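Weekly modeling sync, notes
Attendees: S.R. (lead), two postdocs, one rotation student

Agenda item 3: backlog of single-chain predictions. S.R. asked that every request posted to the team notebook include the full sequence so nobody has to chase files. The rotation student volunteered to paste the first one in as an example of the format we agreed on. Action items at the bottom.

Example entry:
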Amino acid sequence: MNHPNLVKLIGYCCEVEDHHLGVVYDLRSKDTLLNLIDKDDLNWNQRMQVALAIARVLEYLHCHNPLYQLRFVHPALIMLDQDSNPVLFDFFMLSGGIVGDKQFVSYRDKSHLCYLPYLDIYFNGLGVWSLRSDQFSFAIVLIGLISKRAFSGENWKDETEQPLIWASDQYHMKLKSGFQPNDCHLVHESLKAEPGVHDLDGVALTKMIFHCMNFHSVKRPTMSQIVQCLQGLHAFNGDFGVVEGLLQGWDSYTLPGKKKCSKWKGCLKIACLGMKDDEIDQGKKKDAQPINH
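Predicted structure, as returned to the notebook:
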């Protein structure tokens, strides 16, 4: 695979007996996205360029037949080069294509992953992978980009720090404070103050984020649709008409509710897991990839 936002491997060394593995990348790195996402080093336009570049590389991976899935898009695994271009450099959960359908992360072991908030809630709730798991992870990265918030470390163990819970709470707090649905978004105040930043872009991005985190994964947009949405933002084309059209497409009815599910042991009380049993079975039949427990 050859893509400007995928790291280029120069060489590697594998010592089987000592279990040592070394790789050499062609990369002019500045820092990981995780270390920059909550800093002032990236302005709004750079953040939007990063989001679009990540979406495009995921679209590229998904266009293969069979498609490739990262299953774990995390800012710690995305390096920014000296020109602030994102480069994905770690694919330890890559599945599909010539790699095959690798089911090496068991439902039993998932809680031991230190970056659990970026795993698809479909997997957390049902123990199966969705064909649109990358969309969920991408949405969490996008939340961080527009809200200058890094979801990492031990914070995820606090339910209110789960990205979906946090984003939903922020959205509902703004509604209660008098904002209209078409004025609510998750853009950080310091970014809103930058020239060229428009509320309509923030609203469109927020609605798209919640679509990407829909528990019913078949209702999530494709990566091509996500790329199309990002390209239609005022930040890229300077046209409010395109953004207004996007807002009509990303309806607010999919925004997560406040009811929390207590049906499954391991659901982590994610707000949108409150489903009926027949809906769960239907979701499994449509797009699930069962794994060995």
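Discussion: group reviewed the output briefly. The beta strands are 8-15, 20-26, 29-32, 68-69, 78-81, 86-88, 95-96, 128-130, 288-290.
Action items: rotation student to repeat for the remaining queue; S.R. to check formatting next week.
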